[in-house]
Amino acid sequence: MLKDKVRAKKNLGQHFLVDLSIAKRIVDALSDNQRNAVEIGPGMGVLTQYLIQRKTLNTKFIEIDGESVEYLRNHFPECNDQTLLQADFLHLRLDELFAGEKFSVIGNFPYNISSQIFFKILEYKDLVPETVCMLQREVARRLASPPGNKDYGILSVFLQAYYDIEYLFTVDEGVFNPPPKVKSGVIRLTRNSVAKLDCDEQLFRTVVKSTFNQRRKTLWNSVRTIQFDHEQIRNHPFMKLRPEQLSVAQFVELTNVIEQIQKQ
Question: In this structure, what are the phi and psi dihedrals at residue 27, rounded to the nearest 5 degrees?
């Protein structure tokens, strides 16, 4: 006897979308020109069924939950040993999924690991041209937020350095089982033309993290956690600003200024 549903597991952050119109709308947000795709956490296949209908799309489904894997194999013949992997997305070698070919990412991301998923995508940014996902609305807005907004943060800067991010639409709590306590948001990330930042990328990450870790302070105060001769930067116009006021390009500029001082 086939199971008619999967028990949602709190430790996996599972909230199963049950509104088919929203599921189709999410899948339709994935560009038609994509050849390969990965769905993260298909659960009971609400997105999966529409991805399967995209006959030109070669999709692999990554699911960590054994009960969900069993359900998918029983209900979708397309979910076989070649396409459905029982694995933790965060621990996969993504360059091996399609033998080094590019692929898009889609999914209803578990709230508790959504940031980790994005950091994983950044590791393979040259292989991932597009991501369409649903996550906690607060996080979705933060990632899509422009500079000067209080939602703008570390991951906003890191992702916007390499992706154009669109906030597509909001999803209410009642279309999930079990309902989450907050609303969700759907966003689309599209890889931009930046192959490499025009600065030391490791130092860039240090500068962004150091300043946002003290986001209520001006940059003059927060950059002092980085090792360099701070007096040489005291009069730089950025020093009067807070980190959320700087664009990606301005963070690149600040990184180059600090690097030059470090080399002296």
Answer: -65, -40
